[in-house]
Task: inverse folding
């Protein structure tokens, strides 16, 4: 019994959490303004550290608003889990007998135009200046259910979603891979996934590139050995005056492999640039 319960907790927690993150990134890709705003907040909080720690997540109101808005539009389990009434009740004029199975349509509640302004739009700002939360106290937003039968993993999911999304947008810039528009079709099931996976390219942020000296020396060494387009310009060289308009061909390939300059010039050795001031542009010939 204990093993089965633990298995349920892990399977339910991992599937819904990964689905929530996938939908959040999808919506941010569809809304570059929101992506840029979240990245700006993350990089202000990160301040060049290797990651944003859990202790700093409370300083990120826009991150929390993005998570809330993503869960509003894409509740991982849109019908929650089946409930059962424990006694006879009367609700909105309907008599519900004890033992009746009840399915709560959290998806429809979260898109109700009588509650939400422009309910189909992704607008994290709607949560910046209001107290609505998804922890079961506000029935217009219940992706985790409410009351004693609410999701027991809400605290786990909240921390994981915030921590992972904050550090993803902090460390990387995202772009669609060969797509002009995202297909938002959903697959049907207890948990609602994207029907088609989203293909994304990620690149390290500019701040991180500045901290990668070995990447820079690898590029220098590759360009030394494999010049993409050896071209030159008019110069005054070795006491020779080369008139303007004279066609000059500079053999950068030979210069970059000159044994009087380079130690073992035919070998690919990135380390030669680690303690070396040579640069790729204009200064080091």
Result:
């Amino acid at each position: 019994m204990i093993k089965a319960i633990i298995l349920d907790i892990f399977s339910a927690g991992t599937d819904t959490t990964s689905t929530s993150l996938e939908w959040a990134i999808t919506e941010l890709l569809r809304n570059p303004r929101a992506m840029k705003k979240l990245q700006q907040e993350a990089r202000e909080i990160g301040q060049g550290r290797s990651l944003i720690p859990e202790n700093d997540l409370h300083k990120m109101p826009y991150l929390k608003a993005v998570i809330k808005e993503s869960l509003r539009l894409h509740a991982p389990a849109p019908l929650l889990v089946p409930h059962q009434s424990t006694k006879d009740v009367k609700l909105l004029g309907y008599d519900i007998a004890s033992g009746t199975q009840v399915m709560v349509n959290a998806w429809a509640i979260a898109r109700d135009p009588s509650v939400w302004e422009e309910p189909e739009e992704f607008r994290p700002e709607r949560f910046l200046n209001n107290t609505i939360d998804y922890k079961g106290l506000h029935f217009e937003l219940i992706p985790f259910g409410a009351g004693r039968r609410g999701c027991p993993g809400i605290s786990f999911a909240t921390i994981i979603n915030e921590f992972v999304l904050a550090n993803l947008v902090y460390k990387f810039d995202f772009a669609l891979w060969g797509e002009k528009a995202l297909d938002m079709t959903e697959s049907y099931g207890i948990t609602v996934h994207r029907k088609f996976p989203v293909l994304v390219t990620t690149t390290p942020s500019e701040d991180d590139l500045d901290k990668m000296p070995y990447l820079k020396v690898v590029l220098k060494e590759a360009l030394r050995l494999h010049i993409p387009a050896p071209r030159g310009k008019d110069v005054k060289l070795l006491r020779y005056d080369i008139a303007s308009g004279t066609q000059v061909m500079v053999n950068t390939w030979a210069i970059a492999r000159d044994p009087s300059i380079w130690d073992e010039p035919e070998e690919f050795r990135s380390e030669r640039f680690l303690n070396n001031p040579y640069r790729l542009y204009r200064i080091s010939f």
